[in-house]
């Protein structure tokens, strides 16, 4: 856990005590930002303003970030949003008053212990929150009213609403090992739009679907795409099966020889019914 919510895109300016809280002045450092509407990348800064975010407390003392963020001009002449605020989902969601990591901890507390107990535990570590506000956040999550924050490492796979007929796409935060979104289908356009609306994905772990590959290449071309373990194993199993199918005669000849060395191996290939 770092002092800053995301050292890769923030720099610390000043840290001081202000009354009964620790105040940290920080600012964003990335040179470019992505327009949330059209996906155009821009480096033209329009203005700056300050956000105040409550963060994880330090030794029972509340911590507040005074974060300077920027507005950029969208360079796409056809875009309806000429000016946009840079998104920093790894730090805080749009319009949020708490950092992403604090929100996550509070949600976990409320989920595991309930509103009353979570509020008491929060008070012990320096956070004054009402039980109702904690339960409200839980309900907002279940109703889909809270914005989903794109994780740095995103897992993408399909799942069946109705096996053999209707499939959707499940998105998973692989660092936290929890699902974050269900998409209604497994089309390129649907995933592409989600990735464009939720910038910040650096590694995308997916199956072998060309639709997901294309969506990632269009929406987050800078992200690293990797095949998940299950599909790597499946690829390997299929490659071995193909290889063995092409060399059935040699395998049949080799099998008795190997069986003489190791009694556990079948005497013929493929093994007959009931063979070991
Ligand atoms: Zn735009």
Question: Can you walk through the features of this model?
Answer:
By secondary structure, the protein is α/β, with parallel strands linked by helices. It contains seven helices and twelve strands. The strands form three sheets. Strands 1, 2, 5, 6 and 7 form a five-stranded mixed beta sheet that branches. Strands 10-9-8-11-12 form a five-stranded mixed beta sheet. A two-stranded antiparallel sheet has the order 3-4. The radius of gyration is 26 Å and the shape is globular. The mean pLDDT is 86. Bound molecules: zinc ion.
Keywords for this entry:
276 residues; alpha/beta; Nucleotidyltransferase, domain 5; five-stranded mixed beta sheet; binds zinc ion
SSE sequence, one letter per element: EEEEEEEHHHEEEHEHEHH
Total helical segments: 7
Radius of gyration: 26 Å
Derived structural class:
alpha/beta
Helix content: 25-40%
Strand residue percentage: 25-35%
Reported for the largest beta sheet, the result is: 5 strands, mixed
Summarize the structure.
By secondary structure, this protein is an alpha/beta fold. The chain has helices at 100-113, 115-124, 131-142, 188-197, 210-219, 229-246, 248-261; strands at residues 10-18, 21-28, 33-34, 41-42, 45-58, 61-73, 83-85, 153-162, 166-173, 178-183, 203-206, 224-227.
Q: What is the secondary structure topology, with strand pairs?
A:
Layout: E1 10-18, E2 21-28, E3 33-34, E4 41-42, E5 45-58, E6 61-73, E7 83-85, H1 100-113, H2 115-124, H3 131-142, E8 153-162, E9 166-173, E10 178-183, H4 188-197, E11 203-206, H5 210-219, E12 224-227, H6 229-246, H7 248-261
Helix pairs in contact: 1-2, 1-3, 2-3, 4-5
């Amino acid at each position: 856990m770092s002092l800053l919510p995301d050292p890769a895109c923030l720099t610390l300016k000043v840290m001081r005590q202000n009354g009964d809280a620790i105040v940290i002045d920080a600012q964003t450092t990335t040179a470019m930002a992505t327009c949330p509407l059209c996906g155009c990348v821009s480096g033209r800064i329009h203005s700056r303003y300050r956000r105040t975010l409550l963060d994880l407390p330090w030794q029972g003392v509340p911590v507040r970030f005074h974060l300077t963020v920027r507005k950029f001009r969208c360079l796409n002449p056809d875009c309806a949003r000429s000016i946009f605020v840079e998104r920093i989902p790894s730090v805080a969601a749009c319009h949020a008053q708490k950092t992403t990591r604090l929100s996550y901890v509070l949600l976990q507390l409320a989920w595991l212990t309930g509103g009353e107990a979570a509020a008491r535990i929060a008070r012990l570590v320096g956070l004054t929150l009402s039980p109702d506000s904690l339960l409200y956040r839980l309900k907002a999550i279940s109703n889909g009213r809270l914005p989903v924050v794109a994780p740095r490492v995103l897992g993408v796979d399909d799942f069946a609403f109705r096996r053999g007929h209707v499939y959707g796409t499940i998105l998973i935060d692989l660092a936290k090992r929890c699902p974050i979104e269900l998409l209604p289908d497994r089309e390129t356009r649907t995933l592409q739009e989600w990735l464009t609306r939720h910038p910040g994905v650096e590694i995308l772990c997916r199956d072998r679907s060309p639709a997901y590959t294309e969506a990632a290449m269009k929406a987050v071309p800078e992200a690293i795409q990797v095949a998940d373990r299950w599909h790597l194993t499946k690829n390997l199993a299929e490659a071995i099966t193909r290889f063995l199918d092409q060399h059935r005669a040699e395998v049949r000849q080799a099998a008795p020889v190997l069986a003489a060395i190791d009694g556990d191996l079948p005497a013929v290939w493929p093994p007959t019914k009931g063979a070991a």
